[in-house]
Design goal:
The N and C termini lie close together (about 10 Å). The chain is globular. The protein has one domain. The chain contains 12 helices and no strands. The chain is mostly helical. Helix content is about 80%, strand content about 0%.
Length: about 290
């Protein structure tokens, strides 16, 4: 039950982060948004790092997973933010949400059993990705800026899913062994060092007044989501990972209701297949 609650809590927090970052990325760009999200996240976990327990005895294997999870999280966020800056939440979020299926597959390869039903569900999710990646009938002509932006958004989402999948498995693998705040630290440090500092030195770390509440909410929700996922993953990596992927359905609904995003029929079918596949996989794992 705790794995389910942790996964759903992460899904809710990450849906809020996705919707907020989709707005801020269009205002100031993907790289500045990632920089501010990482800075805010680092500030948020610093009190826990200082006042809470230390990392303990970290083995070489755990250190490697800390690096993988940190780089995977930071790299995935940069990809998804760039995808959201040029594409629709209703396409980018569902594709990125297959991170849960990827993390679950890694857990299965590491020893968890894979039933025929779970395998068939993963195929449905992949089919949904293919459909949602197809341009609508009234899409801009091939080679036009709009066509290129749509392709870039899809490619970024696929890359983010792979990156997040590895990161999620790494976080789940470390949960229970390393305190949650220390698991969150590598990604925030990587984002600050590799993204924020270069932008500061180049005088390109922008932040407009309208974007402030969005980047603050994104930074805090990213941290809250990982804290919830880490707690749930201690009781089942596959269940928590797959349930956390429900953030896509929440984000797509919010984008439709609040921002009025519209999708072509093949894309709607693809998004529906992804959401249904993730939901079915959640039930099968639960």
């Amino acid at each position: 039950m705790l794995a389910i609650l942790g996964g759903l809590g992460a899904a809710s927090a990450w849906a809020a982060a996705t919707v907020c970052s989709s707005r801020s990325s269009r205002m100031i760009g993907a790289a500045p948004v990632l920089a501010w999200v990482m800075v805010i996240g680092l500030i948020a976990i610093l009190p826990v790092l200082v006042l809470g327990p230390g990392p303990g005895d970290v083995s070489g294997g755990d250190l490697a997973w800390l690096v993988c999870s940190g780089v995977g999280n930071a790299g995935g966020l940069l990809l998804v933010y760039h995808g959201l800056s040029v594409g629709k939440v209703g396409v980018v979020a569902p594709i990125a949400s297959t991170e849960g299926a990827i993390a679950a597959l890694l857990a299965i390869l590491a020893g968890e059993s894979l039933s025929t039903a779970v395998g068939a569900t993963l195929v449905v999710i992949v089919a949904g990705i293919v459909l949602s990646a197809r341009p609508p009938e009234d899409a801009p002509e091939r080679g036009s800026p709009g066509h290129r932006e749509a392709r870039v958004a899809v490619l970024c989402a696929v890359g983010a899913a792979l990156s997040f999948g590895v990161s999620l498995y790494g976080v789940g693998h470390l949960s229970g062994e390393v305190p949650a705040a220390w698991i969150l630290l590598p990604a925030r440090v990587a984002g600050v060092v590799a993204v924020a500092l270069p932008l500061v030195l180049a005088r390109r770390l922008t932040l407009s007044r309208p974007a402030v509440p969005f980047v603050v909410a994104s930074g805090l929700c990213e941290v809250l989501g990982f804290l919830a996922y880490t707690a749930g993953a201690q009781h089942g990596i596959a269940i928590a990972a797959v349930l956390s992927s429900q953030f896509a359905s929440i984000a797509a609904v919010v984008a439709y209701l609040v921002f009025g995003e519209r999708l072509a029929r093949p894309q709607v079918a693809g998004v529906a297949a992804i959401i249904a596949g993730v939901a079915a996989l959640s039930l099968l794992q639960a």
